[in-house]
Predict the structure of Alpha/beta-hydrolase.
Amino acid sequence: MLLASTSRLFLLGLVLAAAAADPGPANNTAGYDTSRVGPSNAICVRETYQLDITSNNIQFHDVDSNANQTYLEALFQTFSTLMTNLTLMYEQPYRQPVHNSYNISGTLCVPKDVIENTFDVQLLLHGITWDSSYWDFVPDNSTEQYSYVYAAAEAGYVTFRYDQLGAGLSEHPEDAYNVVQAFTDLAIATKIAQMLRSGDIGGVKFDKVIGVGHSYGSITISEFMKKRLYYTPGPTGRF
Ligand SMILES: *[C@@H]1O[C@H](CO)[C@@H](O)[C@H](O)[C@H]1NC(C)=O
Ligand SMILES: *[C@@H]1O[C@H](CO)[C@@H](O)[C@H](O)[C@H]1NC(C)=O
Ligand SMILES: *[C@@H]1O[C@H](CO)[C@@H](O)[C@H](O)[C@H]1NC(C)=O
Ligand SMILES: *[C@@H]1O[C@H](CO)[C@@H](O)[C@H](O)[C@H]1NC(C)=O
Ligand SMILES: *[C@@H]1O[C@H](CO)[C@@H](O)[C@H](O)[C@H]1NC(C)=O
């Protein structure tokens, strides 16, 4: 699914914020097998990157900062049926700059058999309510045939996947409304893409960053592709 509409991205920010504000377990790494870093055909390194991020975020008003399940469901119903009203009801007409340092956990996987494409990297962005572990999905710790990272490595591609803010092994900020937003996620994705280009991840200056997203991850990728936010001409002038 690829929804590149900016207005939807705005609205998604609110729903994301509310979901992150759900006072469930703060420790949301359930199902994340941290002993697994990558598939057998790649050399993988997982690291936490401290990113300095400034983003122009939405300000919300009249939202319950202690959201319960009933409140979240009502909010989601409004989101799916009356998007415009949701904006009118909860968003201030202006945005505010938010600056923070975030700990983002990411995993770089380089194919063991380097055949080709070595100077391109696939940037894998997961969807809402997930974390980056499903890109290397191995049911029952057995067959690797469902692992995207494995398939990419077989095809000679380097991959970099990371947990979005508030997910998996990355930081889970307490201020879910003002901090965990689509604009923050976009700024993080942009920064990561720049780091891949400049050699700050894995020590390799990748020539081309190929965005691969699922659901919300693909919306984020479409947005920064559209704005060319991370464009810096490489040795070959490609993205
Ligand atoms: C998160 O889970 C880990 C492992 O179970 C535990 O050591 C840690 O204290 C938990 N952190 C929080 C904030 O609950
Ligand atoms: C859920 O929160 C709303 C306010 O947002 C409140 O009116 C309602 O009573 C709460 N429900 C429960 C079951 O706590
Ligand atoms: C949605 O907004 C329109 C226009 O402002 C208004 O007429 C309508 O009553 C609103 N619907 C709800 C459910 O709030
Ligand atoms: C981020 O990582 C640094 C370095 O490991 C650590 O000192 C800091 O406490 C982390 N911050 C959060 C909010 O987890
Ligand atoms: C999966 O397999 C790896 C290596 O074969 C092992 O190190 C790891 O502990 C296993 N994880 C689980 C959850 O069984």
Q: What stands out?
A: Confidence is low (pLDDT under 50) at residues 1-18, 20-27, 230-239. Residues 182-198 form the longest helix (17 residues). Residues 23-57+97-226 form a domain with the Rossmann fold fold (CATH 3.40.50.1820). The chain is about 30% helix and 25% strand.
